[in-house]
Specification:
By secondary structure, the protein is α+β, with helices and mostly antiparallel strands. It folds into two domains: 137 residues, OB fold (Dihydrolipoamide Acetyltransferase, E2P) (Beta Barrel); 258 residues, BirA Bifunctional Protein, domain 2, CATH 3.30.930.10. Helices cover 35% and strands 24% of the residues. The protein has an eight-stranded mixed sheet with strand order 6-10-11-18-17-16-15-14, with helices on both faces. It has a five-stranded mixed β-barrel with strand order 1-2-3-5-4. 34% of the residues are buried.
Length: 495
């Protein structure tokens, strides 16, 4: 094994660890039963005066990490930090005894200690705990970053999230807020009568979205599997089975690029409701945004990256073709051949690739160039071309377009919804068209899921379905610019 190179500070700390062992104290401690946290103490006692607290003599047991420490002779102060924040500890040699005071002297910033004592206020009115019993719990062998600069390298914050959580209250706030948002989503969807389910992460067939997958191999079955790129097809099988309303909050995996809004593994919620449709999915998502923002933030009026946004229902609704016409004057309501559409694209500086082989693909390119980034307030853009929507119903009035929407806010997509395609013959044809795209080199195209088509042949009721990106939703509600802030352990390049 390679020799560990230690800094001077690390050598000093290891010496102190040995000193504790020589005193018969385990440097890495035992269970400690707390009766309070810093937040509970502040909430319960901060309103009392110094004299009232003296008279009360309230006793607590608290534990946490030493964040500051100053000592003068036979007394000292320190701040310890727990899940709620920090609280001051007052330590006197004549109250805790010589042996425990010696431990206090040896403790470093970053060490974890337990304090049993009484609630007090200093002459300056600072709520504190006056130590009566001082217990060493765990030795920190590495020093924390310097207080005022913390982890200044953003990349290091993501690589060493454990240090970021110690030093950065904002990181801890995000870590605690994210599960609150997810619980609130569950509460809302449960309240709509939906059933939360789990479906396999390992899938034998690529489907449910257009994305490049991660591929793995199961040795016993001697079969290739994909890490799922969507939860859609298994969930719709459950609608066929009669569950009528289901949702899943789960990890998806896409072997694609990384940027401020993309990570190779991410979390979505997908929901499917029998006897509903695209309009029902607009109502469901509007209601979810309204409910969750009110429950977590207490308001639907938020600021995201300097933009004032209203998450109050209803949201604006606009057809994709109308949005393009408003933005650049090109009217895709007109019937046109693929060649005519390519010519218009070239005139507008839009490059069309070989696999973008329908007018629908070109409509989508125009939307991405002229519309997407300009949408600020929550807006449902509906009426996507059928050729780029292999799992959505064709619109009855104009079958060139699908009953599909995407929700855009501040230029980013948050949700994708359909009136689900439940015609097995149409579905098989669409899968076969996707297969043609795969043969042309589109490695994001779906495979033919024969079992799913068979499921539809048993009869699926008219159904609405929607997927919402939870990471982006958390970013929105916590005003974060990059997905890496809302993931505890984002993927990083090797150093």
């Amino acid at each position: 094994m390679a020799e560990i190179k230690l800094t001077e500070q690390e050598k000093v700390r290891r010496k102190k660890m040995q000193d504790l062992q020589d005193m018969g104290i385990d440097p890495f401690g035992q269970r400690y039963d707390r009766t309070a946290t810093s937040g509970k103490i502040i909430e319960k006692y901060d309103s009392y005066t110094k004299e009232e607290l003296q008279e009360m003599g309230a006793s607590v047991k608290i534990a946490g990490r030493i964040m500051t420490k100053r000592r003068q002779g036979k007394a000292g102060f320190m701040h310890i930090q727990d899940i709620d924040g920090q609280i001051q500890i007052y330590v006197r040699k004549d109250e805790i005894g010589e042996d425990q005071y010696e431990i206090f002297k040896k403790n470093d910033i970053g060490d974890i200690v337990g304090i049993e004592g009484t609630i007090m206020k200093t002459d300056h009115g600072q709520l504190s705990v006056r130590a009566k019993v001082y217990t060493h719990l765990s030795k920190a062998l590495r020093p924390l970053p310097e207080k005022f600069h913390g982890l200044t390298d953003v990349e290091e914050r993501y690589r060493r999230r454990y240090v970021d959580l110690i030093m950065n209250p904002e990181a801890k706030h995000l870590a605690i807020t994210r599960p609150r948002i997810i619980r609130s989503i569950q509460k809302y969807l449960d309240g709509q009568g939906l059933i939360e389910v789990e479906t396999p992460v390992l899938q034998p067939i690529l489907g449910g979205a257009s994305a490049r997958p991660f591929i793995t191999h199961h040795n016993t079955l001697d079969m290739p599997f994909y890490l799922r790129i969507a939860t859609e097809l298994p969930l719709k099988r459950l609608i066929v089975g009669g569950l009528e309303g289901v949702y899943e909050i789960g990890r998806l995996f896409r072997n694609e690029g990384m940027d401020a809004t993309h990570n190779p593994e991410f979390t979505t919620v997908e929901a499917y409701v029998a006897y509903s449709d695209l309009s029902g999915m607009m109502d469901l998502i509007e209601g979810l945004f309204d409910f969750v923002s009110n429950e977590v933030l207490g308001t639907t009026e938020i600021t995201y990256q300097g933009q004032q946004l209203s998450l109050k229902a209803p949201f604006k609704r606009i057809h994709m073709v109308d949005a393009i016409k408003e933005a650049c004057g090109v009217d895709f309501w007109q019937d046109m051949s693929y060649e005519e559409a390519v010519k218009i694209a070239n005139e507008h500086g839009i490059e069309v690739e070989k696999i973008q082989n329908t007018v629908g693909h070109i409509i989508n390119l125009f939307f991405e160039k002229y519309v997407e980034e300009k949408i600020i307030q929550p807006t449902f853009v509906y009426g996507h071309p059928t050729s780029i929507s292999p799992l959505a119903k064709k619109n009855k009035q104009d079958p060139r377009f699908a009953d599909r929407y995407e929700l855009f806010i501040c230029g980013h997509e948050y949700a994708n919804a359909f009136s689900e395609l439940n015609d097995p013959i149409d579905q098989r044809e669409r899968f076969e068209k996707q297969l043609e795209l795969r043969n042309l080199g589109d490695d994001e195209a779906n495979e033919v899921d024969v079992d799913y088509v068979e499921a539809l042949e048993y009869g699926m009721p008219p159904t609405g379905g929607v997927g919402l990106g939870i990471d982006r939703f958390v970013m929105l509600l916590t005003d974060q610019r990059t997905i890496r802030e809302v993931l505890l352990f984002p993927h990083m390049k090797n150093r």
